[in-house]
Here is the input.
Amino acid sequence: MHPFLFHLKEIPLLSKWFSRATMRGFSRELRFAVPWGHIAAKAWGHPNRCPVLCLHGWADNANSFDRLVPLLPEDFYYMALDLPGHGASSHRPPGVPYYFPEYISDVLRIAESLNWKKFTILGHSLGGNIGGLFCSIFPEMVDKLIAVDAYGFYPSTAGAQREQLKNAISGLLKLEKEQGSPRVYTPDAALKRLLQGNKSVSKESGKILLQRGSTEVPGGLMFTRDLRINLHTPVRITVDQCLEFQKNITAAVLLIMADDGLIKDEKWNLSRPPCSLLLEGYRNVLKQFQLERVEGNHHVHLNDPERVAGIISDFLKMDIVSKL
Here is the structure.
C-alpha cells in the first residue's frame, strides 16, 4: 500500500448523486502531512508512471478532474490535490490570509514527499496560475505545463498593490469578527448554493464538486472550504514581474482557452494587455508553446471534458525539446 494512502468517509446523503455523476476510472485517496494538518489528494494509475500533478481552480477541489482524467493516456500517474482550505485538506492556521505564493510551497512539499524530480502540471484557473509561477521558480522540476482557461500568471493592475493589500487585511479582520457557526444545508440547498457561486459549473458537475467539498453533519451538509479563500490575496505580482518570472520557464507550455470563459471578459482578452504581453512573452522565451481555443466555458474540462481531452493527450505524449 502507498505510504500516504487513506480512505475518506463517504457521504450517504450524496451517494445517490455521485453514482450518477462520476465517470469511469478508479482513483485512490491520499493525504500528506504538513505542519498545520494535511493536504488531501486523489490519484489515478500506477505511481511508477510519469507523474502529472493536477491543480484545481478557486473554490473547487480534486474532483474537478474526475471526468477528464479517465479520458487521458494511461501511461501517466495523475494526482489531483485539494489545495489547502479546499475539499478534504486542512485549513491554514487561524489568523493568516491565503497568500498566493504559499500554494507554490504546497506543490513543492508534495513533490518532495513523493521524491518527484520531474513532473507535469495540469492546472485549471487558479491551478494553472500556480503552475506557471512554480515553473518559473523551479524550472528544473517541470517538463510540461498545461493551463486550462488560465494564462499561467494572474498579474495585478498597475498601481493597485496598495489597495489590494489594504482590502486583504481589512477583509480578514472583518471576517474574524463576523464569522459564526458554519451554515448547514440540505443536499439540494447545498447544490443550489454551489451553483450560485459558480455560474460556469453545470448541475452534474456541481454534484461532483459537492461530493468532495462538503461533509455530513447533524441536519444536513456543511461546506468544508475555508471562508478565507473568498478574500483578496494580499499580494499579486505586476505584469512586468510576471514577464521576468516567465523568462525562467523551461517547460513546454500549453494554454487552452474557452470561448465563453476567461477571454470573454475584456480585461482578459487575448489581444489586449496584460494577456497579449504574457502570450508574447511565452512565444519569445519558449521553444515549445501552444495556444488552443475550444468551445465551452470556464469549467469546460469538467462540464465537457471531451473538448479538451484530445488536445491534452497529444501534448502529454509529444516529445520535449528541452531548453536545458
Remarks:
- The chain has a mean pLDDT of 91.
- Residues 59 and 86 are 6 Å apart (CA to CA).
- The first helix runs from residue 12 to 21.
- The first strand starts at residue 28 and ends at 34.
